[in-house]
Amino acid sequence: MLPKENGKFVRYCKKCVMPETKPDLFIDDSGVCNACCSYEQRKEVDWVQRKVELMQLLDKYRSKDGSNYDCIIPVSGGKDSHYQVIKMLELGMNPLCVTGSTDKLSDIGRYNIENIKKLGVDYIEVTMNPVIRRKINRLALIQVGDISWPEHIAIFTTPIRIAAQMNIPLIIWGENSQNEYGGPAAAAGNNVLNRQWLEEFGGLLGLRVTDLVGQVGIKKKDMILYTYPTDEELKKVGVTGLFLGHYLPWDGYQNALIAQAHGFKTYDKTVEGSLVNYENIDNYQTGIHDYFKFLKFAFGRATDLACLHVRRGRLMREDAINLVKMHDGKFPASYLGCPLGEILEDIDMTMEEFVKICDRFTNKKLFVCDSEGNLLKDKDGNLTKINYDNVE
Ligand SMILES: [Zn+2]
Predict the structure, then answer these.
(1) For a Cys staple, 54 with which of 93, 96, 247, 336, CB 3.0–4.6 Å?
(2) Structurally, how many domains does the chain consist of?
(3) Whole-Å CA distances, 130 to 53, 134, 239, 284
């Protein structure tokens, strides 16, 4: 392997295709990343025992007299939320499903939300003020390079607020993203989601909710739904969240198969920048979110997906490398068929302004530049990763 010099060479995990540029990813001396190690450890897990533990936990929280819900399931309408709902119903739970509405809901996303209801559950959809939401989308893209910042917050705060207010202590989350995608060992072993987890791994990027107050006319009263309940409020109800992925072997593709068998609709082609048609199909802004991850760290959604499939033996690593080269990190000219111009218009941004923000957040050490240090782009605006052609 070539030496890593001056940040001009990026090392990739030799088992999957994840680059070492991913935050919190660690590649050990044998060249294997912590996400792969974490996945290998799953083979040691006694899943039968874990399921017993899950049942004991659920029994503890089941409403004895049917006067309240047994748990809250935060749902987006995606494949994983379908799986969570289907599993909880199978285990005899009476859940209340809660959605903190997404940024720019796609038609297929709406269809799938309606499909969750048809699984036979009560459902609350909480919609944040769209005028304020657009302002936050714009602000977060400019300030921290993440258009989806308000969504990352809303999907956590909304169910927790409802839990506190409706006196429903148990929240059933999906997987611990730190586990499958690679994160600090302590976080990967954690099976609960609390305020500390949210602040550390929820994707807030150092921008706090309170930082927005006073900017572009945003007031404290506009941020109620984005605000985490106080410790006191949570303690009164005893709100606790568990990751279902700790108790049941988690696999997004399996979840998609089960969801589809229950009426979940997939996109009719491979999603732009992705490798598949069954995930991240509810929000037109996701293409921009994923593209900024690529600009900052030189890997995108296609890499994430390739790694998941390689670890599960469904994709050969050499094929994964080719697929990543084909699909990862393309300029997001459209997402789910919606043109970029239309998505930007929504947040009052011109294409020119957008490209400037892209360039500002691009890590120039990870992409090929010309002799004057300007980013090299093809006619479609696509960048080239350094040592792109010699991934070993
Ligand atoms: Zn790996």
Answers:
(1) 247
(2) 2
(3) 41, 6, 28, 15
Q: Distance, CA 86 to ligand 1 centroid (Å)?
A: 30
Quick check: is 299 in a domain?
Answer: yes
Residue 135: strand, helix, or coil:
helix
Asked if residue 224 and residue 98 are part of one domain, the reply reads yes
Concatenate the DSSP letters of all residues of 244-269 into one string. HHHHS---HHHHHHHHHHTTPPPPSS
In a domain, 150, yes or no: yes
Residues 131, 69 share a domain: yes
Q: Which domain holds residue 84?
A: 45-252
Q: How far is the CA of 173 from the centre of ligand 1 (A)?
A: 24
Q: Return averaged pLDDT per consecutive 10 residues of the chain, 392 residues in all.
A: 52 94 92 93 92 95 96 96 98 97 96 98 97 97 95 90 95 77 50 64 73 92 91 88 91 97 98 97 97 96 97 96 95 98 98 98 93 93 82 60
Q: Work out whether strand 338-339 and strand 334-335 pair parallel, antiparallel, or are unpaired.
A: antiparallel
Instruction: Give, as one character, the DSSP assignment of residue 19.
Output: B
Q: 217: CA distance to ligand 1 center in Å? A: 44
Q: Is residue 83 part of a domain?
A: yes
Contact, 2 vs 380, CB < 8 A?
no
- Does residue 85 belong to any structural domain of this protein? yes
207 CA to centre of ligand 1 in angstroms: 29
Are residues 380 and 325 part of one domain? yes
The values of phi and psi at residue 107, to 5°, are -65, -40
